[in-house]
Amino acid sequence: MYFLMQRAEQLRRLRQQDLFEQTRVADFLFEKDRIFAELTLNEAEFDLYMRVFDQLAPELQPPDLVIYLQAPVEVLMERIRRRGIAHEQSISADYLQRLCDAYVEFFYHYDAAPLLIVNATEIDLVENDGDYRQLMERLTQIRSGRHYFNPAPIAL
Known about the structure:
Layout: H1 2-16, H2 33-40, H3 43-56, E1 66-70, H4 73-83, H5 93-109, E2 115-119, H6 129-139, E3 146-149
Parallel strand pairs: 1-2, 2-3
């Protein structure tokens, strides 16, 4: 509930700012928070969560574009290991698989904003500027609808 309320407040503040002030990029989609709630809360907690969620959701504007970076669990596990963030190291492959399955289901039905689904298996957007530039160029071409991007990795 804390994260739900925190994210809703962040999005409200963004809405109140000048829309032409600057471009904003976020690693959060309000509707996606529900995925984590479904995976972690018991039935009574989830019912309460949904009552609050349903009250907050209509107030929030959809994003201009959503990017879904998709990769297999094995790739995600290796990336978590390499990042070395202590609290992430205990994430199990089983939980990550359930999360990936929930994301696939969620984005299969998502139509509130333009959507770019990126196969991120072979690319490294953090360490490889070529991969990053390739994605940024693709983003400039999207105005509406659902799109798929299967980039080839660019050698460093």
